[in-house]
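Run log // design_07
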């Protein structure tokens, strides 16, 4: 009795000692690994050179376009070259919208300024105008409430949505969310009161003459009217003219239209886990971009970072216990067909995805991880406890927040979903416009984002996440 009690006590004590001694050891070991990953990314990272190739040799790659098909094949080849396992395509049918040759707008026969061109571009999904364009009296609005109040007064008019970004928002994504309903639903609300077209102030706080496109929607039973983005310089000019002169008219000409759905694919590659190969940690970005600029920040950056994270682990000979998978999703911008198809396949046939991190906020300096889970719960804590691994690059701010459009549906099926958070002040200077080019991407910032993904995916693939209780 006495003896077995003593044995029992020794067992408990040794367990306690091992537990205490083990934790600092593994923490130290992971810190060592994180340091090596970050060193390798900064010294020899290839995310930037890959992004340069994607931007300059393939360029913008809207879903359904020949360039998007080229980007799918390029990505597949890059994954093979990087030595990833199980490289394959998941076929997905995608919408195929084309901008066409003509997109122009001008103020017509103003008493003050005569006929003056305005810089516009079609919003993604917009129908064309008649060949000679549509001419209408311009009415400036800032809210849908104002649109409803116009009622029959809007009949035959071109509604001009001119609610700017709230510049006091510290995080520019909040300013975007506060304005983007004008782009998404502006045409629907305008058509309901009889307007013939809409112009929407570009989704940026930067003042320049470059319009920013992005997806817009129609609704069943509501007439489909053409919709264009106007540059911020153009929007300010038009607004001032409207204050000075009654009855200002604009002629808008667009030739955009939607073709039949096109075949495309998600591109997938992985490092197979050594102990739990059927459990997956996913890293992702989206391969499609708008047909403006080069899709450098949005979201070529996220794609090359996901691939680079796996390359870094391979180069350093780090073998994760669970599988780490890179997915380049197709059609995030105008349909999310890639993300939806991926989540449906995983829900039906597995393998189980314990965690997923998307990088789709630009290739800027990483500041941390947003975790789509209750900050007091075990899932959040199981991730946040590793934030110290990223302290040396100041990417250790882990907060509750949104993950990413492509992986959100995985979250609905129980995967712990997260987003790579980056410094946000410049993103909307470039987003969805001719400004989004490779020269706007800083090599070191991009590589550090890739290193952040590599560190987090490696530690989560080895240590797991507390998914229960999410
Ligand atoms: Zn994006």
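design_07 sequence
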């Amino acid at each position: 009795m006495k003896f077995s009690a003593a044995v029992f006590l020794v067992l408990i004590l040794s367990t306690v000692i091992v537990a205490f001694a083990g934790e600092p050891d593994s923490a130290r070991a992971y810190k060592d690994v994180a340091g090596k990953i970050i060193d390798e990314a900064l010294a020899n990272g290839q995310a930037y050179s890959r992004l340069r190739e994607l931007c300059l040799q393939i360029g913008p790659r809207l879903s359904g376009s020949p360039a998007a098909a080229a980007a799918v094949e390029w990505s597949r080849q890059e994954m093979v070259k990087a030595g990833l396992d199980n490289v394959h395509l998941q076929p997905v049918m995608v919408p195929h919208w084309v901008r066409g040759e003509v997109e122009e707008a001008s103020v017509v026969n103003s008493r003050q300024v005569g006929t003056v061109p305005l810089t516009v571009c079609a919003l993604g999904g917009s129908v064309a105008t008649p060949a000679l364009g549509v001419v209408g009296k311009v009415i400036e609005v800032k809210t849908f409430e104002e649109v409803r109040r116009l009622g029959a007064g809007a009949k035959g008019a071109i509604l001009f949505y001119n609610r700017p970004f709230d510049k006091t928002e510290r995080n520019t994504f909040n300013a975007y969310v506060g304005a983007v309903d004008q782009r998404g639903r502006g045409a629907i609300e305008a058509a309901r009161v009889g307007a013939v077209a809409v112009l929407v102030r570009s989704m940026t706080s930067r003042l320049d003459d470059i319009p920013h496109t992005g997806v817009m929607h129609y609704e069943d039973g509501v007439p489909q009217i053409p919709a264009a983005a106007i540059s911020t310089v153009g929007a300010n000019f038009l607004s001032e003219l409207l204050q000075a002169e009654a009855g200002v008219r604009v002629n808008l000409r667009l030739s955009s239209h939607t073709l039949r759905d096109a075949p495309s694919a998600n591109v997938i590659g992985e490092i197979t886990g050594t102990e739990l190969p059927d459990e997956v940690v996913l890293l992702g970005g989206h391969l499609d971009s708008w047909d403006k600029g080069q899709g450098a920040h949005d979201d070529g950056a996220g794609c090359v970072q996901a691939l680079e994270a796996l390359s870094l682990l391979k180069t350093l000979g780090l073998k994760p216990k669970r599988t780490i998978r890179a997915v380049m999703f197709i059609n995030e911008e105008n349909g999310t067909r890639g993300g939806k198809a991926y989540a449906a396949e995983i829900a039906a046939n597995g393998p189980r995805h314990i965690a997923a991190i998307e990088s789709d906020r630009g290739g800027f300096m990483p500041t941390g991880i947003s975790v789509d889970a209750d900050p007091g719960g075990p899932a959040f804590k199981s991730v946040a406890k590793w934030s110290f691994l990223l302290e040396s690059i100041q990417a250790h701010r882990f907060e509750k927040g949104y993950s990413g459009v492509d992986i959100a549906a995985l979250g609905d099926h129980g995967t712990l979903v997260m987003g790579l958070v980056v410094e946000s002040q410049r993103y909307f200077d470039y987003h969805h416009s001719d400004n989004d080019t490779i020269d706007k991407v800083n090599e070191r910032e991009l590589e550090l984002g890739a290193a952040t993904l590599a560190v987090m995916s490696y530690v989560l693939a080895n240590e797991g996440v507390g998914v229960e209780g999410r």
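DSSP finds 13 helices and 16 strands in the chain.
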